[in-house]
Amino acid sequence: MPAAPTARCFRSKLGALAAGLSLALLAGCAAGPTQDPQVSPTTTLIREETPAPSSEATNTPTDESVVETEAAEPLVFPTCEQLNPMLTSLHDGARQNTNMEAVITEVDLDHFHEIAGPTAATAMAAVTQVRGCWYPIYPDGHQPSEWIAELSKADQQPLIDALSSDPSITDVSSAGATAFTYDVNREELRETIMVTYIFIGNAWIIDYNGVEHATVTPDVINRLTQPLKDLNPSLA
């Protein structure tokens, strides 16, 4: 059995892949699909009654008005192939240049919960919709995964506060989005996982091991959020 890749190995592998170097040794295995819960837009009727006039007021009859307000539309999520174009391109290259049979697959939250801390898990329990994607591009070890979730700003805040207060976590902001990144290195994982959380509007992007050169920059933030902005102009 080959030794588990180290964090340095992962970062060099992903950087080399993104630079277009050889993919001849790549292979992978597929993961099971998951359902993609959706939230339907709703319309809320708020009924307001005008108070009856006093005896000193005019004799205008009591008036009842109905104010209709439309609830916010749910976010439109990219497909897995659209969500991270860089990983999709690396995966396609691996399939073209090797005998890899694994394909990009929607996944559930099992792997998310393997890595996430309790505050992140609480935030995930409050999302209104989520889509997870798995990108097989390596011969072994943890393949990159990414999730996109819709989470209200109020439910985001405890997680953002926890991330901001940890001096070991790096944060970078760009174009209305804020990213936090840190490494998780536990014995049972066999290798270091680079975790990146990005918050923009009501969207929360979770990336495991899918950041080019393992460095979060404003350009990386823009690349990871652009597919979502393309489908949701309110986030642009």
Explained architecture:
The protein has 236 residues and is an alpha+beta fold. The chain is built from 7 helices and 9 strands, in the order H-E-E-H-H-E-H-H-E-E-H-E-E-E-E-H. A 7-stranded antiparallel β-sheet has the order 3-4-5-9-8-7-6. It has a two-stranded antiparallel ribbon with strand order 1-2. It is globular, with a radius of gyration of 23 Å. It starts with 6 loop residues before the first helix and ends in a 5-residue tail after the last helix. The N terminus is likely disordered.
| Gross geometry | globular
* Amino-to-carboxy terminus distance: 47 Å
- Write down the secondary-structure element order: HEEHHEHHEEHEEEEH
Mean pLDDT, to the nearest integer, reads 77
The biggest beta sheet reads:
7 strands, antiparallel
Strand order of the largest sheet: 3-4-5-9-8-7-6
The count of DSSP E runs of length 2 or more, i.e. the number of strands, is: 9
Poorly predicted regions? 1-9, 19-70
The helix-and-strand class reads alpha+beta
State Rg: 23 Å
Beta-strand content bin: 15-25%
- Classify the helix fraction into a percent range: 25-40%
What's the helix count?
A: 7
List keywords for this structure.
about 30% helix, about 240 residues, 7 helices, 9 strands, alpha+beta
Secondary structure topology:
Layout: H1 7-18, E1 43-49, E2 64-70, H2 80-83, H3 85-97, E3 105-107, H4 110-115, H5 118-125, E4 129-134, E5 145-150, H6 153-164, E6 170-174, E7 177-184, E8 193-200, E9 203-208, H7 218-231
Antiparallel strand pairs: 1-2, 3-4, 4-5, 5-9, 6-7, 7-8, 8-9
